[in-house]
Specification:
Radius of gyration: 24 Å
CATH class of the largest domain: Alpha Beta
Shape: globular
CATH superfamily of the largest domain: Thiamin diphosphate (ThDP)-binding fold, Pyr/PP domains
CATH topology of the largest domain: Rossmann fold
Number of domains: 3
Strand order of the largest sheet: 2-1-3-4-6-5
Number of helices: 20
Structural class: alpha/beta
Length: about 550
């Protein structure tokens, strides 16, 4: 009797991945994903075996950030799926295209009290644009096509497909459906004119550019608009690099929890033009005083932000800005003293050396200045989450948009180290630097083995202070501190086959960082950090002694 050559549901799902030009899946296999793993192995898609599903989801999230195409992560049922949740939520809140695929027990176990069975569709529903359990093999192509559409459409985000093991093993006669790129929609003429009219009447306009401007490929359009009109630009953490730090129109980044120089500029503005601004990046009501607000974005502004919006143009951001320049007919705004003072204040803050000696703990501002001086345009930098993130977001100055990844929607600890795996796999000539706090790095330290196994070239820099600095600062002097012991970093690095470079102070940091970035394999670089030297939290007036000599 001839062998049945009808493909299984798992094979059709993998065919859908291939048809959508997905070339990598990050994950941890399990019994309920056996069919999917076999299909992946026969497909030519790279499967990156991770040491924890959270790491896999963070890798997929960073892959999506850097490529603009959905990153894919895979886990089995139960604890495998629950481990994905943090990374999937990270992608959803930072508007990153991601597809999470989970195995599941057979259909006759759904809804029953059974080993490792939980309702995965319900679990992922609040943190995705779509969460669906596929109950029939022939539904696989349509469900996948819809998942791809939603992952990329409008503000991108995460989607989840749950595949019961008997559906994965069942014959499937359906074939992949075409995956269509969401069309570019242009803003309406009346809307563009309304925004242009409000802007033309303003005396002190300021642009706040967010992650959406980078996502939409509009960074160059923002720069050209600023240069043509003289309107200065502040960016959110995730949009840093749209303007270089030496640009006359830069107001650096907004989003610190303490009042900063950029906040003074926003408070002096009479109109704030939000371009690709996501409300998850920074509370919109914290942007400024009584300034009028206008919006240019790919999606309509949400009504629940609390902002009173005078005019909005919804469509392709680059086209909207090009159109807006024509409508303004060469109008150009003269420099506003409050804006110039804010820009120059930030520059002085970045140039100021706060570390007293060349040996011992280093002020975060000085670490960031050394990192900035070592960057090349082709390099990629990832920040973890904690006190160090706030300093990186303020003081590390990328050379291009998208060069610095600062997770800021969910802001979950643990992204930088596994995310560096995805970044390093995509690098052709540049080097990847992941900057972690000593609390952040331990969240997914197991992925050091993944990095060794894959033979990746990257550097992980750990800021060492032996505590949860951001939490300690919020607790205040009367509250409890949360100190912890760190591993013996050199032994940890050698256990995973990494090079170890312990920084003893500001004097040897530049040399050791350059050596780490040029090393052939992975390097663990530890830096003792002194947050107190910089006033703990970034703020406008540090009221500290020091000099303006750069390191």
């Amino acid at each position: 009797m001839p062998k049945d050559t009808t493909p299984t549901g798992a094979q059709v799902l993998v065919d859908c991945l291939v048809s959508a030009e997905i070339d990598t899946v990050f994950g941890v296999p399990g019994e309920e994903t056996t069919e999917v793993m076999a299909a992946l192995d026969a497909s030519g898609i790279d499967f990156v075996l991770c040491r924890n599903e959270q790491g896999a989801a963070f890798m997929a999230s960073v892959h999506g950030r850097l490529t603009g195409r959905p990153g894919v992560c895979l886990a089995t049922l139960g604890p495998g799926a629950t481990n994905l949740v943090t990374g999937v939520a990270d992608a959803q809140l930072d508007h990153v295209p991601l597809i999470a695929i989970t195995g599941q027990g057979a259909r006759d176990r759904l809804g029953r009290m059974s080993h490792q069975m939980i309702d995965l569709e319900a679990l992922f529903a609040p943190i995705t644009k779509l969460s669906r359990t596929i109950l029939m093999p022939d539904d696989i192509p349509a469900s996948f096509a819809e998942a791809m559409r939603l992952a990329l459409d409008g503000r991108p985000g995460a989607v989840h497909l749950c595949l019961p093991e008997d559906v994965a093993a069942a014959p499937c006669a359906s074939t992949p459906l075409p995956v269509r790129t969401p069309p570019q929609i242009r803003a309406g003429q009346d809307d563009l004119q309304a925004v242009a009219d409000r802007l033309a009447q303003a005396q002190r306009p300021v642009i706040v550019a967010g992650a959406g401007a980078v996502r939409d490929g509009a960074a160059e359009a923002v720069r050209m608009f600023a240069e043509t009109t003289g309107v200065p630009v502040a960016t959110t953490f995730m949009a840093k690099g749209i303007l270089p730090p030496d640009h006359d129109a830069t107001l650096f980044s907004v989003g610190q929890s303490e009042e900063d120089w950029t906040d003074l500029a926003l408070q002096a503005a009479d109109l704030i033009l939000l371009i690709g601004f996501d409300a998850v990046e920074y509370p919109p009501l914290g942007l400024g005083g009584d300034a009028e607000v206008c919006v240019i974005d790919t999606d309509p502004p949400r009504a629940d932000t609390g902002l009173e919006i005078s005019a909005s143009a919804v469509g392709d951001i680059g086209h909207s800005l090009t159109d807006m320049r024509l409508r303004l007919k060469g109008q150009r705004w003269a420099p506003v003293p409050a804006f110039v003072a804010a820009r120059d204040g930030m520059r002085l803050a970045m140039e100021r050396r706060l570390t007293g000696d060349d040996t011992g703990a280093v002020a975060p501002t000085d670490i960031c200045r050394v990192v900035t001086s070592a960057l090349r345009p082709e390099d990629t930098v990832l920040s973890g989450v904690g006190m160090h993130k706030l300093w990186i977001a303020r003081h590390v100055q990328p050379l291009r948009a998208g060069q610095l990844i600062v997770p800021n929607g969910l802001a979950g600890m643990g992204l930088a180290l596994p995310g560096a795996v995805a970044a390093a796999r995509l690098q052709d000539t540049g080097r990847v630097l992941a900057i972690c706090g000593d609390g952040d790095v331990m969240m997914n330290v197991q992925e050091m083995e993944t990095i060794t196994r894959l033979g990746l070239r990257l550097t992980v820099m750990v800021w060492v202070d032996g505590g949860l600095g951001l939490i300690d600062d919020h607790q205040g002097e009367e509250g409890p501190d949360f100190p912890f012991a760190n591993p013996m970093w050199g032994q940890l690095a050698r256990a995973f086959g990494w090079t170890f470079a312990p920084v003893t102070g500001l004097g040897d940091l530049p040399m050791l960082l350059r050596a780490a970035l040029s090393a052939e394999g992975p390097t663990l670089l530890t830096v003792p950090v002194d947050y107190a030297a910089a006033g703990h939290m970034p703020a406008r007036d540090l009221n500290l002694s020091g000099n303006s000599d750069a390191a």
